[in-house]
Design brief:
- The chain has one domain (9-148): Thiol Ester Dehydrase, Chain A.
- It has 4 helices and 5 strands.
- It has helices at 27-37, 41-44, 46-49, 61-75; strands at 17-24, 83-90, 100-112, 119-129, 135-146.
- It has a 5-stranded antiparallel β-sheet, with helices on one face.
Amino acid sequence: MTRQQILFLEDLAVGDEFHSAEQRLDEAQMIDFARQFDPQPFHTDSVAAKDTFFHGLAASGWYTAAVTMKLLAGSMPLGGGLIGAGCELQWPRPTRPGDILQVVSTILKIVPSRSRPDRAIVTVECLTRNQRADVCQRMVTQLVVMRRSAHAPTTGPSVP
């Protein structure tokens, strides 16, 4: 397995795209997540879900967000990690058991910090799509991205 190149601010440009791996959603895992964190019938009971707004079992939006985060961590290898500074999140359509999700992320804006020259705020649109290319989640997030020089190895103490 090859290791991805770690990216820093200097490596990024507006318009850059990142494509994640794919992940198939497992019904049991979706239900287990919902029972713990979003216990509503349309997330936890496939029979009861038929008579709800969703007309069937739908993943919690927070489950979709968690899967998105996993896929982002694998597809945007930023030096210092994916450090969020805020986001706007939308779920335009339900995510269903068996869906295969992939995230396509596009850099929209880069604003260098005026007070901290070692970093910038990078605005990224992340579209989580299913196997039919339907957008199940849209997230526009601001990430703190470090310059390479902020991660340069430091030399040890000098020896007299």
